[in-house]
């Protein structure tokens, strides 16, 4: 009997020891983040919050490595991504088009997955093979190109508009992607579209005083023209209606945009599946929702009035 007791005790001790060792060796995940625009950082915070809710807690079983904003050039982004890989990350999270494109190239031939958010046209920009079957190591949450819908909102909000001016950079893929559907939409709406090619915000500043009185402005996402606040303020000083697509509502009358934080949380659900072993190639790209935000405070400052119909359709009103 005593020998049987010793055997049971010894076996039980081995089980406890094994369990303790297993607990002490619980897997810790490393996630490296890459970004080239300060305005996209809420997506990173959303990713962390979403993964935390799903059990991947920062400082407990998950480590995030984010070195801040990287210069928006392929060379700088490649160096940053390789530095993250040298730190043995389990996954990359990219914010914006160029980081996703570079990450796809760098991780080719490895098993390191990449989750992106945001990205306007992942297929057209060569990041995934298709929306339903991304292929390779990459998947994520797209914005889709809703610039045409933003133009529709502009005309509803400022129906007296005869000419819509769009500042863009022909050397910027994101800018060209956003611009692509606008000529057809403008023709359908019965307004003239005037794309204005500029390389710097200073060039855009010089163009604003030359715009006709019946013009409105639609600002589309253009990483190379990221700092357009001075342009927006000047337009409002001239009482030119101005809206923003996929940008924040500061210094404009309205924005039609994805909520970057919520998009990051949406991406966290894909990231959690990948961390559990699902291949990115088998996870369809998801699409984030876009929301209309009215900047009523800005409108009041210049004496612009929104119709009740528009106000009731807004997701958010800044007063």
Describe the protein in words.
- This protein is α/β, with parallel strands linked by helices and 319 residues long.
- The protein folds into 2 domains: 27-144 and 259-289, Response regulator (Rossmann fold), CATH 3.40.50.2300; 147-245, Rossmann fold, CATH 3.40.50.
- It has 12 helices and 13 strands.
- The chain has helices spanning 2-24, 41-53, 74-86, 97-107, 147-157, 173-179, 182-189, 201-207, 229-237, 260-275, 296-302, 308-313, and strands at 29-35, 62-69, 91-95, 114-116, 138-142, 163-168, 192-197, 215-219, 242-245, 254-258, 286-287, 290-295, 316-318.
- The strands form 2 sheets. The protein has a 7-stranded mixed sheet with strand order 7-6-8-9-10-12-13, with helices on both faces. Strands 2-1-3-4-5-11 form a 6-stranded parallel sheet, with helices on both faces.
- Helix 9 links the parallel strand 8 and strand 9 (242-245).
- Helix 5 runs parallel beside helix 7 (182-189).
- The longest helix is centred in the first third of the chain and has 23 residues, at 2-24.
- It is elongated.
- It starts with a helix and ends with a strand.
- Mean pLDDT is 91; it is low at 5-24.
Comma- or semicolon-separated keywords:
seven-stranded mixed β-sheet; Rossmann fold; 13 strands; single chain; alpha/beta; 41% helix
In short:
The protein is built from twelve helices and 13 strands.
Stated plainly, the CATH topology of the largest domain is called Rossmann fold
Report the C-alpha radius of gyration, rounded. Answer: 24 Å
Task: Tell me the overall shape.
Answer: elongated
CATH arch. level architecture of the largest domain: 3-Layer(aba) Sandwich
Q: Give the percentage of residues in beta strands.
A: 15-25%
The pLDDT mean sits at 91
């Amino acid at each position: 009997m005593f020998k049987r007791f010793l055997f049971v005790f010894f076996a039980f001790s081995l089980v406890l020891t094994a369990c303790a060792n297993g607990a002490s060796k619980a897997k810790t995940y490393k996630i490296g983040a890459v970004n080239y625009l300060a305005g996209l950082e809420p997506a990173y915070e959303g990713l962390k919050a979403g993964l935390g809710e799903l059990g991947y807690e920062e400082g407990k079983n998950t480590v995030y490595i984010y070195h801040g904003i990287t210069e928006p050039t392929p060379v700088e982004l490649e160096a940053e991504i390789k530095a993250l890989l040298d730190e043995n990350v389990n996954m990359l999270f990219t914010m914006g088009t160029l980081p996703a494109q570079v990450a796809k190239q760098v991780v080719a031939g490895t098993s390191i997955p990449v989750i992106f958010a945001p990205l306007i046209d992942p297929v057209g920009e060569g990041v995934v093979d298709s929306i339903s079957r991304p292929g390779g190591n990459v998947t994520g949450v797209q914005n889709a190109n809703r610039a045409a819908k933003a133009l529709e909102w502009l005309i509803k909000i400022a129906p007296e508009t005869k000419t819509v001016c769009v500042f863009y950079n022909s050397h910027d893929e994101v800018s060209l992607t956003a611009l692509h559907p606008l000529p057809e939409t403008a023709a359908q709406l019965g307004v003239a579209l005037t794309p204005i090619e500029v390389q710097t915000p200073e060039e855009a500043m010089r163009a604003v005083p030359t715009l006709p009185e019946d013009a409105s402005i639609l600002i589309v996402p253009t990483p190379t023209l990221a700092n357009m606040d001075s342009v927006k303020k000047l337009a409002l000083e001239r009482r030119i209606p101005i809206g923003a697509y996929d940008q924040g509502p500061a210094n404009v009358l309205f924005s039609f945009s994805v909520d970057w934080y919520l998009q990051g949380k949406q991406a966290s659900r894909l990231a959690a599946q990948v961390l559990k072993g699902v291949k990115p190639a088998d996870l369809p790209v998801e699409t984030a929702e876009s929301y209309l935000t009215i900047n009523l405070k800005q409108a009041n400052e210049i004496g612009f009035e929104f119709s009740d119909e528009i106000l009731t359709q807004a997701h958010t009103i800044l007063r």
